[in-house]
Amino acid sequence: MSAHLVFQAPIGSIIAWSDGMPRPPERHRKKLSAWKSNNSSGRLIRKQEHRAVGDTSLPGDFTLHEADHGAGGVIAIRVHRTFSTDSTLRFSVLERPALGSVRVFNREGDGAELVYLAAHRADAEEWLSRHGYPRAVLDEVTADELAGDVVEGRSVA
């Protein structure tokens, strides 16, 4: 699907992207590294609609959380990838957040990012008690939102 249709997926979905090229052999390390940057997956954590800044028009974009790197339970690096809705890559929804799960956003309003996807409200509140997000917002995944994934008579996935 196109990058525009990712906007139909709920925040918290696992999204895969691909350039359509076949995976190179393991022995071609540089080619494989380049291929991996254009063929991976991540959790949808932010969507931002088309906007205008002065005389400049910026296309919509969305951000995926690809990976965490660290040791001993400490995350040292978070890998986020932001894609424009003009991207030529192909996207697909691999998984949607479960009904009843609770999304924890870092703040209210536009530009808010998903920081944790909890199995239920108690899990979200317990996670928040251990992490420093004083302006966090909890948002439960509803059946109406998941039912809204049908676009033009076909499933987004």
UniProtKB/TrEMBL annotation:
Top-level lineage group: Bacteria
Name of the protein in question: Uncharacterized protein
InterPro entries: UCP036055
Origin species: Aquamicrobium segne
